[in-house]
Specification:
It is built from eleven helices and twelve strands. The chain is an alpha/beta fold. Strand 2, helix 4 and strand 3 form a beta-alpha-beta unit. Helix 3 packs parallel to helix 4, helix 5 packs parallel to helix 6 and helix 9 crosses helix 11. It comes from Agromyces mediolanus (Corynebacterium mediolanum).
Length: 360
């Protein structure tokens, strides 16, 4: 078996995305790590059984780990990756998390609270001092920056330092920013979580997650959790995710450029109460006038934009987030989250403007 080839450490992230996790540069070796469809291996090696490892996972993990600056462990989904991190918290431990977080994460936290497994303190991630104070006695600070879907930004280095001062681990969901816009491990974070379903794979055809850490003991605990719990990715999903990762920088650059252009065009629109954009990435949140009803009319009137709950693909999608009962009631009822794709920006803008007109 050919081991994945690590990218050179003295090149830029865009080059790492293309080169990491490749087979060795030897005659007749393929450029890409082949798809390994195997549940069983000949005994005596490092793998033994398909629940413990797969060369297709290893290639993806090599590439993502190189981008984030740590060791990656892949999982069956983003929420499985979240679950693995939360299982690091001891029974009765305190988790500090933003009140505006991905609903799947909040549901995971609340379920553990209801069962008595952990305690949770919800905070405003933009209030650095309050977050640090809440970390006293905490086992884990979990946060997103930007948050989903409020798009609030936390001061990552300061929050990490504040949590570490109280002895808490820090896990950051980096799905929106990607390692091309933010590298939390470089800022001291212990764990970085991704829904690889989104920007990393980038084509709305993969469900997969990953956790990255530069702590060998934590990495082994994550691998053990995956092996025992069975939340393993399929080899095909890992193969597709790595193929998508190769073009992350190209897709993100284009989508981000589109997002910035749209923010400029939509700013001050009379039918929008607010345009939220964190200054990077390709997610925008619009607060549509008329509350839930106005936002629903706006979404229904879109023709090019697709009404869908996921994000990070090459196509542009939009969704009113409060249609989900689990979404925080502090999120405006008329907030519509936009995942900006790579279509021509003039077409995207024209469709949003006609939808706003139709929603009046």
């Amino acid at each position: 078996m050919t081991q994945p080839r690590a990218a050179a450490t003295d090149v830029r992230a865009e080059t790492v995305a293309v080169t990491a996790g490749r087979p060795a540069h030897e005659p007749d070796e393929p450029l890409n790590t082949p798809l390994h469809l195997a549940s069983t291996y000949v005994a005596g090696g490092a793998l033994e059984y398909g629940r413990y490892g797969n060369p297709s996972w290893a290639a993806f993990e090599e590439a993502l780990g190189a981008l984030e600056g740590g060791r990656a462990t892949s999982f069956a989904s983003g929420i499985a990756a979240v679950d693995a991190v939360l299982e690091l918290v001891p029974t009765g431990g305190l988790v500090v998390a933003p009140r505006h977080s991905y609903t799947g994460t909040v549901l995971q936290l609340d379920a553990r609270v209801e069962s008595g497994r952990i305690r949770v303190a919800y905070v405003d991630v933009t209030d650095t001092a309050a977050v640090a104070a809440a970390c006293e006695g905490a086992a884990l600070l979990w946060f997103e920056s930007p948050t989903n879907p409020a798009l609030e930004l936390g001061d990552v280095p300061a929050l990490v330092a504040g949590a570490h001062a109280h002895g808490a681990l820090v896990a950051i969901d980096n799905t929106f920013a990607t390692p091309l816009r933010q590298r939390p491990i470089a800022d001291g974070a212990d764990l970085v979580v991704h829904s690889a379903t989104k920007y990393l794979s980038g084509h709305s055809d993969v469900i997969m997650g990953a956790v990255v850490t530069n702590d060998d003991a934590l990495a082994q605990r994550l691998v053990d959790r995956r092996s025992l719990g069975g939340a393993i990715p399929s080899a095909f999903e890992a193969f597709l995710a790595l193929r998508g990762l190769r073009t992350l920088h190209v897709r993100l650059d284009r989508a981000e450029r589109n997002a910035r252009d749209l923010v400029e065009r939509l700013a001050g629109h009379p039918d929008l109460q607010e345009v939220r954009y964190p200054g990077f990435g390709a997610v925008i949140s619009l607060v549509v006038a008329g509350g839930a009803e106005g936002a629903d009319r706006f979404v229904a009137a879109a023709r090019l934009w697709v009404h869908a709950t996921s994000l990070g693909g090459v196509e542009s999608t939009l969704e009113r987030r409060r249609r989900w009962a689990a979404e925080a009631d502090t999120i405006p009822a008329g907030l519509v989250r936009l995942s900006v794709g790579i279509e021509h920006v003039d077409d995207l803008a024209a469709d949003l403007l006609q939808a706003l007109d139709a929603a009046r």
